[in-house]
Amino acid sequence: MLQFPGHIAIGYIFARLVSLVLGYRPLDTDILLILLFSILPDFGVVLARFYHIPFWKHHDLPIHSPLFYIPIFLILYVVGFSWEMVLILFSAIFAHLLADSLGRGLMWLYPFSTRFYGLKWDKYTYKPLQAWLREYVKNPYTLGLELIIASLACFLAFLMGDI
């Protein structure tokens, strides 16, 4: 449902709210990691090429499952990341996955289940990239949603002193 800017924004919002609850002040480099982790599940678009599947099926790959990230976060903790930062980064990914669940859904329990769980709010049909982009930029609902979430993230970043 959300695209690149929306995923970055929603991941930042979730991560900064979690950091506030934990009383943890992220450094500038932490903020960059938060932004990166906010879009990490969409690197499945690149991986889809190696699996010889269309880019729009990247939600079918393990990288769009929360259980995929457990070993990654354990490694981050072992190499020296604080448990607060690990939780903050997880919240950025979780926000991305939650936003993707508004649409067709995700395999939240993969590898234990391949069932998709989602609200199926959007009626998006998978199309080639050019057709998808044409529809995306003409849809006031998706553009409005992205704008609202990005604006909220910028406002929060201003309040938190991150910009």
Structural features, described:
With 163 residues, the protein is an all-alpha fold. The chain has one domain (4-160). 59% of the residues lie in helices and 0% in strands. The chain is built from seven helices and no strands. It has helices at 4-22, 28-39, 44-50, 70-78, 83-100, 129-138, 140-160. Helix 1 packs across helix 2, helix 1 runs parallel beside helix 7 and helix 2 packs parallel to helix 5 (83-100). The protein is globular.
Total DSSP E strands = 0
Inertia-based shape = globular
pLDDT averaged residue by residue: 88
Number of domains: 1
State which percent range the strand residues make up: under 5%
Going by helix content, strand content and strand pairing, the class is: mainly alpha
Over all CA atoms, what is the radius of gyration?
A: 16 Å
Instruction: Determine the fraction of residues in helical runs and give it as a percent range.
Output: 55-70%
The profile of the biggest β sheet is:
none
- The poorly predicted ranges are none
- What is the ordering of alpha helices and beta strands? HHHHHHH
Termini Cα gap: 27 Å
- The number of helical segments is 7
